[in-house]
Amino acid sequence: MASINEILDNPTAGEKVSISGWVRTFRSNRFIALSDGSTIKTIQGVVDFESMDEAILNRITTGTALTMSGTLVESQGRGQSVEVQVETVEIHGDADPEEYPLQPKKHSMDFLREKAHLRFRTNTFGAIFRLRHALSFAIHNYFNEREFFYIHTPIITGSDAEGAGEMFRVSTLDPKNPPRSEEGKVDFSEDFFGKETNLTVSGQLEAELAALALSKVYTFGPTFRAENSNTSRHLAEFWMIEPEVAFADLTDNMDLVEDFLKYLVGYALENCQNDLEFLAQREAQEEKSKPQNERQSMGLMDRLRFIVENNFERLTYTEAIKILSNSKPFKKKKFKYPVEWGKDLQSEHERYLVEKHFEKPVILTDYPASFKAFYMRLNDDEKTVAAMDVLFPGVGEITGGSQREERLDVLTRRSKEMGVPEEDMWWYIETRKYGTCKHAGFGLGFERLVMFVTGMTNIRDVIPFPRTPKNCEF
Ligand code: 4AD
Ligand code: MG
Fold first, then answer.
1. What's 52's domain CATH number?
2. 442 touches ligand 1 (CB under 6 Å)
């Protein structure tokens, strides 16, 4: 059975077709708009209501699952090249119009989040999830074409890769009555793995081990963070892509991240035109209801093309602090958080740099060591590390990465300073003892990428089933 996408792509009038899907609308007891999710487009079925069984006609309503069979003919109506002259309709499942939550009208994103089991059936979410698929595919394509190997890093881990301690515990101990040591502490040696274990926050450390043998690798998997941030850009469960390259330094890393992000955006522009055009129109409509000064300066398509066509701005954290200290919002005390060398940048600062000052993506490098992870390579000034964050308009930080500390003595010193438990990390540290070399990598937050490409403003709307604090429905 051909999909609607296949039929509309290459229609042959006169052909007999049989198409299964869900009814979007049924007008005038005659016109069925049927969707099967293969494309944003619906196909129109024209029913001869005089010859059709009335019991069947009555069951055709928004949401009904059915198969319509008939002949493909050139369409008389506007907006479509072909339609189906329907001869038979087989109903698979009814959708009671009194109860079916999705009516042929505009629903709010909040409402649809509560109906995550059905929101796949809307145009907007169909487009988003087809794009999510295309981008996943493009990621594997990109790396495969460049001789990177896909490494499956573990989901359950005994180490805290980012050293931030925001992890979900994995345990089979009875939470009401766990075994205890003589001092009364929970005895994790009795737990499933004989030690404390958590869901991973990043596959990087394991990817480094693989890169130090296979040279170019990447991971693409789920990661989990128990940070209690209820923002439009944070999830407790999100997907991350982490390439890691041996013999690469920070500049190589910046070149890779820029090329990679341009490729992905370019791939979407080339392969997902219909869905992007729909999302662009949708956004343009939303923009109209905003006050003039809150509207985006560019539409979705222009923003995407802009990424592909322009170089990212590269500058150090120290230079960024100078720019921010001389900025209007700083002087007018419009920033909520302080701008001060040694303090991390907040999203208001990042957005100023990207959206107001440079008006293009920015790669910020060489952050203070004090608030970055222990594995980042210490610069000669001993104050900053060879870190790099890519900041994008709208979403802020889209990737974070660094050149890694490959020197055994510096790594052990930094681990101690930052309280990283060496006994858990012996295997990581050993790679610096045996054939160490410079290497670098980064992590791309997949949902942040999908946000940027679809123009969605809430991260909960680009993952099928979002997990956020106090929310684990579906
Ligand atoms: O900056 P992060 O924490 O870096 C790492 O985890 C490194 N191990 C990556 C590496 O060098 N291999 O996270 C990387 C990216 C961020 O830039 C952001 O896009 C995304 O992951 N991210 C999140 N996305 C959604 N929800 C969250 N809670 C996220 N936390 C990070
Ligand atoms: Mg980061």
1. 2.40.50.140
2. yes
Alpha carbon distance 453, 255 (integer Å): 21
Task: Domain of residue 288: give its range.
Answer: 121-154+207-461
Determine the distance separating the centroid of ligand 2 and the alpha carbon of 364, expressed in angstroms.
11
Percent of the chain with pLDDT over 90: 90
Amino acid at site 183:
E
Residue 184 counted as domain residue: no
Would you place residue 109 in the very low, low, confident or very high pLDDT band (cuts 50, 70, 90)?
very high
Give the ligand whose atoms come closest to the C-alpha of residue 233: 1
pTM of the model: 0.96
> Looking at the predicted structure, is the pLDDT value of residue 79 above 90?
no
Q: Ligand 1 in contact with 202 (CB < 6 A)?
A: yes
Distance 436 CA to ligand 2 centre (A): 25
Which one of 250, 448, 450 would you pick to mutate in the ligand 1 pocket, going by the greatest count of ligand atoms within 8 A of its CB? 448
Please tell me the residue having the least CA distance from ligand 1 atom 21. 445
Q: Is 445 in the pocket of ligand 1 (CB under 6 A)?
A: yes
Distance 450 CA to ligand 1 centre (A): 14
Interatomic CA distance for residues 226 and 391, integer angstroms: 23
State whether 398 and 426 are in the same domain. yes
Closest ligand 1 atom, residue 201 Cα: 6
Judge if the beta carbon of residue 377 lies within 6 A of ligand 1: no
Is the CB of 225 inside a 6 Å radius of any atom of ligand 1?
A: yes
CA of 448, closest atom in ligand 1: 19
pLDDT of residue 423: 86
363 lines ligand 1 (CB under 6 A): no
Shared domain for 32 and 129, answered yes or no, is: no
Q: What is the pLDDT of residues 165-223, one digit of tens each?
A: 799 999 999 999 999 999 999 999 999 999 999 999 999 999 999 999 999 999 999 99
The reply to whether 44 and 135 lie within a common domain is: no
Residue 164 has pLDDT above 80, yes or no: no
